[in-house]
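Structure Section — protein described below
Tokens — whole-number codes for backbone shape
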Amino acid sequence: MTDTATLQAALSDYFAPWVQALHLQVEPAQPEGAVLLRLPHSDQLARTGGMLCGQAMMAAADTAMVLALIAHFGEFRPCTTVQLSTSFLKPLSGQDALIHARVLRAGKTMAFGEIDLSSAADGKSVCRASTTYALL
């Protein structure tokens, strides 16, 4: 099982500076092949009215799934996003988001996952995503 510190370090080791600027924080103790991240509220990620922008949610979801793959495999494996399908359920304003990502299936060349973004205050889903990755 990959520990929280290793996953947190992966954010600076494998992701572009603009992804690092999201300031994602890995939360502890998730089942194997799953991760929980916190996306801190930031005015820089909000659009008019203080709502978290969809682009930030999608970037956080994609990033969380790569970390879930690291947790699943026990190490980083180069991969690329093939598909990211996102449904925005309701706005999120003025609070942190929690991103729960889990690997549904990972084979030799492809991996599949699902992500739920929820309000940190009440746990209600605000965004759902499904992903497919090519493992390189």
Q: What stands out?
A: The chain has a mean pLDDT of 96. The longest helix spans residues 54-73.
